[in-house]
Structures are given as structure tokens and as C-alpha cells.
Write a structure and sequence with these properties.
3-stranded antiparallel β-sheet; Arc Repressor Mutant, subunit A; elongated; 10 helices; 2 domains; 202 residues
Amino acid sequence: MDDFERSVEAVLFAADEPLTREDIEAHVGEGDVKAALDALAAHYENRGVRLVQHGKRWHFETAADLAHLLRRTREEQRRLSRAATETLAIIAYHEPVTRAEIEAIRGVQISKGTLDVLMAAEWIRTAGRRETPGRPLQYATTKDFLTHFGLGSRRDLPGIDDLKAAGLLDPLDEEAMQLALEEAGADTDDDMDELESEREED
């Protein structure tokens, strides 16, 4: 490992949040940051920690098969209510989406507390106001949402076949989920690219 790679490694190790290549370049100066990142990712591939990329940001994380070693025996896992889980899924597949649209898809009203829980977890954010009467707030997912669920981008969200194979889709929910995914399919690839660009700019 040369001195430039060591510099990139040190910057990433000390960072308290994932960094883009531009962030890293601001610390280490001129050099082939991409090559250094690729070399470091390969170096850490089979180690206890790994260098991973989510979206356009890089950070170190514990190897998935060793994560259980770091959990405290009394740690309480963050568990979402069914309403919060459904709301998060709707936002992820349809963003940006208003509260009224979420309620229309779920078929029931959502409490303000449900959105507050997701905001507190930093998995969703406000994404401006819809240019319609009343100018309602819109909601979208965050970079922390991608990182927490190990997604590179929204394109990595599972489809209905993936959810069924993982046993995460109740047969009674399958028809509703299929409808939701079909509606989400209204987004074109260009729309998805634009949303990803906006996320990176934020």
C-alpha cells in the first residue's frame, strides 16, 4: 500500500459519515482517488471490516458475518410498527410523495407520529412542497436509509419476486404490494436518475 492509499484510508477511517470522492480529494489533494478506493476495497474484502460504497459515498463497516459480535446482549433493536413499515415502503417506492398520497395507497389515515418516527430515525426527509392547491409537503428517503438497508440506490429496492422469495410478503398483502409496485413503475429511468442526482446534491 503506497502513501496515497494510506492517506485515503486514514481519511475514511476518521470520518464520522460516508464520504464522496470529492470529499476525500479535499483532504488528500491530487491523486487517483478512484484507484486508491478500488485498491482499498480489494484489500479489505475478506477482513473484519470492509470498505463499501453506497450511492456515491464510501465508508468502512463491519463485515456482515461478524456484526453479531458487536451487538450488546441487552441491545434493543429498533422495531417499526406495521404502519411505519408500510409508510416507509410507500415513500421508498413512490418518492417524492405527499401524506395524502401515502394515505390513498394504504387506504387508511396515518398519524403524525408515524412520520415523526421515520424522521427521527433519519430514514425520510421533507422534499419540498408539491405545486398543487395547499402546497402539501412531500417526503423522500435519505442517504441514511440507503446505508442502513445496504442499498446502493433506489434501483436496488427489491421487487415483488424478491420479497416473496425472502418470505417477507404475506399472501394477503401480495395483491396490494403488486399494485403498489406497478404504480411505482410509473417512474421512468430518467426520473430515477434525476432523483438520485438530487439526493447526491443534498
